[in-house]
Please model this.
Amino acid sequence: MAEKIYLFDTTLRDGAQGTGIDFSLSDKYAIAKALDEFGIDFIEGGWPGANPADSKFFLKPPKLEHAKLIAFGMTCRANKSAANDPSLAQVINSKSNAACIVGKTSTFQVEEILKISQEENLRIIRQSCEEVVKRKGQGNSMFDAEHFFDGYKDNPNYALQCIKSAQDGGASWLILCDTNGGSMPDEVELIVRQVCKKMTEETAVKTEAKNKIKIGIHAHNDTGNAIANSLAAVRAGATQVQGTINGIGERCGNADLIAIIPNLMLKMKLATSVEEKKLGRLLELSRLLDNRINRVPRADAPYVGTAAFAHKGGLHGAAVAKNTRAYEHIEPEVVGNQRNILVSDQAGKANLIAKINNLKILNSQSEMKPQAIDSLLEQVKIREAKGYSYEDADASLSLLVLKAAGLYDEFFDIQRFRVTDERRWNALGEEVIESEVVVSLIESKNGGSEEKLTAANSALGPVNALDKALRKGLGEKYPVLTKLRLVDYRVRIIPPEKKSSGSEATTRVSIDFIGKNGEAWTTVGVSANIIVASLQALADSYRYMIFREKQSSQPA
Model:
């Protein structure tokens, strides 16, 4: 294997072909900057001329400190000169450092899809690469060998002729593509090994020197093997790996660089341009992409998912408390992640104690007694049997811990509430549905308690009206609640144990919030009534926010 592997990111081009993904110009700038700062070698910015965003991006490209900006395009059209092809000209004339040109390397694709002769395909590959070298300079031409693995299986000699034509045209990198994503790791490793051997021998004959051929791998994930295929290619001699952040891309996606990079560096002990200290920003890079495409991060994503270092079973929690190597293959901090001890009906005492320590809501003078921990564990299991889930609802769990420790302050009490929904039509004949909520709150005041009525309405539904009414009633005494932002609301229907109507099922509501300093947390509520479940989750979050504010104001 090579001493160093070069990383090529195609998130902004191939990743943008994924279903539901559409990058704005500002998205492209932000992602390119993050990739450059992280240490990626080549950033494929898009296809100049293919769409307005890509064209604008290359008219005024971002200033990159480390990476080379790559423009993507296709070979010149059949029976046309590469020097006079308008589409190729847009790629070559773009303000990029280099260009990656895609061409067919499969006899099936050439004869059945392009409908041209094999000889003509070899010509357009060679001349297109020559044109890139003329305009961009030596070392700035890459050839993307489309359908290479399928083509090699059908006709290995012709597939090799295609990449040799690209090499003759001056291409500095030959990228072997598993375009349809149907190859297996053993096939990829065998073919890449054969290609490296044959191309090296060919070069040695021509130059009388054993020059190292620069081979890359571009894998798609249609069989779920894109990561494995990429690593197999590296074992066989590939020195460039192409992929996208979080594996986004056409159909089932591309090879996921977020998993490939730590695998290369930590498992295969290979050097990349990513500094070891910057590997700790891997999770940050993954989240940036998810935020930009408005996608919920995969909890089970290798290395960076919230479940990647989560421990739920009591046996696992107890072992990890003794030595993290018991159930973790690396320290989570190496990739910017953190250990997550889950508390559920499967958790043991070790899990619960570890979770309490991670919550950091008790100080050293407020350690819980063993009896309190036993009682809390039993309470958690009883509540989870009713439908609650505390695996990710840390804020609601924190309140249970404070109660068990005798440190809980309820701050306010909700006596009663009334929700009214009205459906009507306005003067334009448009349907209008509005929710109105009236809430009775009890607050402590001057050593006693005082009842306060508050009301609010909303066209966004009863939960929004309830949220507005509660904040209105509590805002004067607890102004910090104005900084609380609701970012996600999820409902899960829990089927009843006894056979009955589905409408009699229990409802679990989970709500995600962000506080004033960017701290994120989740609360949970359970009831047969969705409004009551929502009220529980809302109230838990307000209480947690108030508690955190008071905690931060106390002297250390």
Remarks:
- The mean pLDDT is 89.
- Residues 261 and 272 are 8 Å apart (CA to CA).
